[in-house]
Amino acid sequence: MSSSTVLIVGQGLAGTLVARACERRGREFMIVDAGHAGAASRVGAGIINPITGRRLVKTAGVEADLPVALAAYRDWEAVLGRPVLTELAVRRRWVSAEEREAARERLRKGLLAPYVDPAAFTDEGVVIAPAWRVDTAGLIAGARERWLAAGRLREGVVARAEVAGWSGPVVWCDGAGGRAHGLPLTVAAGALATVRAPELPRDEIWNRGGRWLMPSAADGDEALVGAVYSHDEYIDTAAARAELAAMAAELTGLGEAAPEPIEVRMGLRMMGADRRPLSGWFPGREGREGCLNGLGSKGALWAPRLAEEWTERL
């Protein structure tokens, strides 16, 4: 390795995108990753939704971040030779009349343009389009296989003290491991489920009250439903399965006839103290050691731009 080789610790979504940004620029890099058994990518739905929240507001940074994100995922499609990005619409049902009327006022003021067509705003709900689903799990797995074959990725665990002698820059993208660096991160254990939902249109995400159901692929009849969160690091598997089954029942409208979860996946999601990502050099280690962490629920949108910024810093 050259003295300027970048060491990337962690190959979740953040580490994968930082590594690809280095690769595109011809920058030497090495990734060390221990695997994804409890990673945030296991519970990341990969949804890019431009209008979110109880009050229906534009997602922070959507105008600047969206073009970068779409370009990054289309680049990965070319690299892997298969789809990574799927354009969908979000069909959101109102929880209450108050929610509907607050959204109607925002629509009247033009605050939801261009993602909400007034003709798609009804007493039952609203359609938000376009939105996207990123196959984050498939992307990460494909990148892992590719970089293992190329000798760019080593499987294992790295402690911060072990990188003291590394001659190039170090970028920590290690998710829950970031707490060992004293970073102001909030941990949330999460769970989502795979269910059979043949009645779900393959081009829509169904959403109500922060719960969602979306196709897991363009074909087939499986869907992802989520998500369950706990601010502890542990979620009871049986309780999570029951809650996710109830979500599927509500969102499909099938009640007791709704399908039971086929699989429940769990992982730890990290968020910055203000629900914004942490990205930059560690104090006193500028130019040598830093992090990209705490992507939270908007990681699919925010991570590509932050990864590009990291390559500029390097």
Please name the defining characteristics of this protein.
314 residues, alpha/beta, FAD/NAD(P)-binding domain, D-Amino Acid Oxidase, Chain A, domain 2, 3 domains, nine-stranded mixed sheet, six-stranded mixed sheet, 6 helices, 31% strand, globular
Can you walk me through this structure?
The chain is α/β, with parallel strands linked by helices and 314 residues long. It has three domains: 1-45 and 136-184 and 275-314, 3-Layer(bba) Sandwich (FAD/NAD(P)-binding domain), CATH 3.50.50; 47-134, no CATH class; 185-272, 2-Layer Sandwich (D-Amino Acid Oxidase, Chain A, domain 2). Helices cover 28% and strands 31% of the residues. The chain contains six helices and 17 strands. The strands form three sheets. Strands 3, 6, 7, 8, 11, 12, 13, 14 and 15 form a nine-stranded mixed β-sheet that branches. Strands 9-2-1-10-17-16 form a six-stranded mixed β-sheet. A hairpin with a 2-residue loop joins strand 12 (204-208) and strand 13 (211-215). Helix 1 (13-24) packs across helix 6 and helix 2 (62-80) packs across helix 6 (299-313). It is globular and about 60 Å long.
